[in-house]
Design brief:
Elements lengths: L5 E7 L2 E6 L4 E5 H6 L25 E6 L3 E6 L5 E5 H9 L13 E2 L2 E2 L6 E4 H6 L1 H14 L1 E5 L7 H9 L2 E2 L7 E3 L15 E4 L11 E8 L7 E5 H11 L1 H9 L2 E7 L2 E7 L2 E3 L5 E4 L13 H19 L5 E3 L6 E5 L3 E5 L10 E7 L1 H18 L2
Parallel strand pairs: 9-10
Antiparallel strand pairs: 1-2, 2-3, 4-5, 5-6, 7-8, 10-21, 11-23, 12-23, 13-22, 14-21, 14-23, 15-20, 15-22, 16-17, 18-19
Helix pairs in contact: 4-9, 6-7, 6-8, 7-8
């Protein structure tokens, strides 16, 4: 962010106030300024060289003045003068962040599904060849929680090449990739030809896989259509209409478990998870792997009522995005936000084959931020 000219600074012992020429004002606590002095960071890595216990308990400002696009600060009780760039202070005072991928777009306006009109679709060759197209696609993916590729080669393992371009593939008990097709006596109902209700994958893991990719090698001519829903929007709908039910689901841990060849996985988490500021940060709905609830008998009726109401919202077609993935299509979605499912199909009549993998959350966000920085540095 380019800062306007600073025209004046005012000081109190516990704060510095900067007045800029655009009429805006920023106030900075002395303890915050003392904690963020540029001389207390390594010049190469940017990492902090001091701990909070190295700071004075109550640093006080003696005086401050404008000097060469910076604020020069003299401190009381310390033989120390500090210089802090005004552009840096302006950025912290006026910008929440410089990462548009953090601006989440929910799929609902009121009770209307809106985002299906413009999910990001990109041909795989273009994603490979154009860094700008890749940044746009990845940004939209992180904002919406869901994005699609087309024309991904229909060969074994092509999904890994595609996902390695945008993030880091995680290895699980299924390996780095898994085949989604009907088999006899499946250990997971995903490997059957049954329809699957909306769900999040692997809530029994720590951590839950961040993103999931599914690549269609062979679509069934009838059935096997994909369903998606924005779990954050549905949880917000429940919060707005039935706040007591929402609060119950957000504070009650439930057990999830998977047992199969070579893996016995268990974790407890609420169906709706909140951040420290009360924002919806994850949903963990998976009716196939939820275990018997550990609730006193007197609390079961209320909890099951809230649980049932959330499940009913997931079943409402108006909240669902139904789409058909054709041969070569790939869907990538936030596995802690976007629920997915499918309609049933007949594997006896027609084979259906998808390959899937999981992509770590931090790697997707990191590659998006790095790509944006690289493109900005290249631009004149």
């Amino acid at each position: 962010m380019s800062a306007p000219e600073a025209i004046r600074v005012d000081t109190k012992p516990d704060a510095l106030t900067v007045h800029w020429s655009d009429g805006t004002v920023g106030e900075f606590a002395s303890i915050w300024l003392r904690d963020n002095l540029p001389e207390d960071r390594d010049r190469h890595s940017g990492q902090r060289l001091i701990d909070v216990t190295d700071l004075p308990a109550d640093p006080r400002i003696r005086s401050a003045e404008l000097r060469d696009a910076a604020a020069r600060i003299d401190w009381q009780d310390e033989p120390l003068s500090s210089t802090i760039a005004l552009e840096w202070l302006y950025g912290y005072a006026h910008a929440r962040h410089d990462r548009p991928e953090l601006d989440r777009r929910e799929w609902l306006e009121g009770a209307k599904l809106v985002a299906q009109r413009d999910f990001a679709w990109c041909p795989w060759p273009r994603l490979q060849s154009s860094a700008a197209a890749r940044l746009e696609w990845m940004t939209r993916l992180l904002q919406d929680g869901l994005a699609f590729l087309r024309d991904v080669p229909r060969v074994d393992g092509a999904i890994l090449e595609a996902m390695n371009l945008v993030g880091q593939v995680a290895e699980t008990n299924y390996g780095r990739l898994f085949d989604v097709r009907a088999v006899d006596q499946p250990e997971n109902l995903a490997f059957s030809d049954r329809g699957l209700g909306l769900h999040l994958d692997n809530p029994y893991r720590e951590p839950v896989p961040g993103f999931q990719a599914l690549h269609t090698l062979l679509a069934a001519p009838d059935g096997g259509d994909s369903l998606f829903a924005d779990g954050f929007a549905l949880a917000a709908q429940l919060r707005a209409t039935e706040p007591d039910a929402f609060a119950l689901l957000a504070r009650t841990p439930v057990p999830f478990r998977y047992q199969g060849t070579g893996a016995d996985l268990y974790a407890e988490r609420p169906l709706i998870e909140l951040s420290c500021t009360g924002e919806i940060s994850a949903v963990a709905y998976n009716n196939r792997s939820i275990q018997p609830l550990r609730l006193p008998a007197g609390e079961c009726r209320a909890y099951y009522g809230a649980y049932r109401r959330f499940a009913q919202l997931l079943r409402e077609p108006r909240f669902q995005l139904a789409t058909r993935l054709e041969d070569g299509d790939l869907a990538l979605f936030d596995n802690q936000r976007v629920l997915h499912g499918r309609s049933g199909f007949s594997s006896a009549r027609h084979a259906r084959h998808l390959q899937g993998c999981y992509v770590t959350r931090d790697s997707l966000y990191s590659k998006t931020a790095l790509l944006r920085t690289q493109l900005q540095e290249r631009s004149p």
